[in-house]
Amino acid sequence: MTKRSIFHPSKGHVKGVGTSRSARAEVVDLARYRRVISDWDAFRKSAANPAPTVFRVCRPRISPQELVDRLTEQGFRLRKKDGLPNFYEVEGGPRPVSLTLEHWLGLFYVQQASTGIAASVLDPQPGERVLDLCAAPGGKTTHAAELMKNRGCLVAAEVSENRIRGLLGNLYRLGISNVLVASGDGREAPEEALFDRVLVDAPCSGEGTLRRRAGRAPRQSSSFLGYVTKVQRRLLEKAIRVTKPGGTILYVTCTFAPEENEAVIDGILRDHPVEIDPIKLQIPCASGLTSFEGQRYDPALEGSVRIYPQHLDSGGLFMARLRRLDHSVGEDSSGAAEQGVEGWKSVPQLFPGNDPSDVAELVELATNDLKGRFGVSPARLDECKWILRGRRLWLHTMDEWPVDAWKTGVWRPISIGFRAVEFDSRGRPRPTNDLLRWLGHEVRLRVVDVNDTQLHQLVTQESLSIPGDFLGPVALRYSEDIVGRGAMTQDGLKSEIPRARATDLTRALDID
């Protein structure tokens, strides 16, 4: 018996699950669902074709109409997705829509239509405490943060260090300011703090991703179902223990298998203080199953939802929304849910493990620099909060967090908001690329406009002989968008956009 992680096509890995080396993987026979999918022919036809590209407009950054106008001018043909606010399908275009300046700037997020439903069903509100137990790569996380209007605290947990990097990249690119990223297995989440809403986007067999394989379901070993359902149940049990009474838990998978969907929820309903909160959607969908292959499930599961490929011309999805009923947590009575401990405190100005420092002086230095040198309005900065980590100030919009209450040590805070101001060797503040892009038009001074040729020279590490009566950091503006930081030096203008991001920018602009 060896140890390996469970792989989920959209959710990555959950560590520490055993599987036999001798287990033989076989392709799932989708015909087993023929009796429960009423429009079987439409299902098979949709499943055999690649899913179209769909994206979600990031409303805090740009209006849908402005983004549509910008992409249309470049030759893209777009269509609104009915029933999904701010989602658009790409019907055609000169190149992948991900290779555009607008995507590079974080003005939209490429996301399957089916997965775009989950955050709205979770329905997080501004100012609430929300937990995503399996967050990477961040589609549902960033959507939920947007629905919260970047107010409140959304804890995004991920066990895979590699996938955390992808999650952070998306959060920084979109300029999300109310997400706390934590490294840790969702099954081991600390229980000293309670949440209003918890999302369990669980690892699963991934049958709903069949459109990536021309309609073929993934291979599974004979032992897979047994251990994946144990992981799913443990994640749900943890979610219940860290949800406050009256709070909401949303269970999501991208598989059709009732054993991983209705059967898991049926067992949870029998053993834990939760009830089904029926999901009502204004889009094509199917109700959850109350029986399958001789097995009967709680009748309330009819209030869960199944999305098949033909419903939204997308992938498959299952969702069940639960309501936490009381303080009882079953077998484990040691958690915060049992004791009624809230576990939330004001976010400090020093990140855990940071050396003591005069944060107030650094914040004043940074904000005065932004107002004085870059012309940022005081009103824009008044909504920002700051926390020092190393020699950087991070910007966030959270009033509170649960980190101080985490006593178990199995979860580690990674980031809060995004890196905003760094200090050079002489202690002078320098706004980061992420902050300058987030501020956008709010940057009114020390702005240098560049064209295609000049931007290409800059991002390939060349200097530009641009006259100027000042030295030091500047904001680079291309076609009315702030794209990052530059530096005016004695040798001319230089780019300070990180090399990897600069390479992606040249691809997006097709100027390489």
Task: Give the secondary structure arrangement, pairings included.
Blueprint: E1 2-8, E2 12-19, E3 25-27, H1 40-47, E4 54-57, H2 64-73, E5 77-80, E6 87-92, H3 101-104, E7 108-110, H4 118-122, E8 129-132, H5 139-147, E9 153-158, H6 161-174, E10 179-183, E11 195-201, E12 219-221, H7 224-241, E13 243-253, H8 262-271, E14 274-276, E15 286-287, E16 291-292, E17 295-296, E18 305-307, H9 309-312, E19 317-324, H10 336-339, E20 345-346, H11 359-372, H12 378-382, E21 385-389, E22 392-396, E23 400-401, E24 412-416, E25 418-423, E26 429-431, H13 433-439, E27 447-450, H14 452-459, E28 472-478, E29 481-489, E30 492-495, H15 499-509
Helix pairs in contact: 7-8
Tell me what you see in this structure.
By secondary structure, the protein is α+β, with helices and mostly antiparallel strands. It is globular. Helix content is 26%, strand content 28%. It folds into four domains: 52-111, Alpha-Beta Plaits (2-Layer Sandwich); 116-339, Rossmann fold, CATH 3.40.50; 344-442, no CATH class; 446-512, PUA domain (Archaeosine Trna-guanine Transglycosylase, Chain: A, domain 4), CATH 2.30.130.10. It contains 15 helices and 30 strands. Helix 7 (224-241) crosses helix 8.
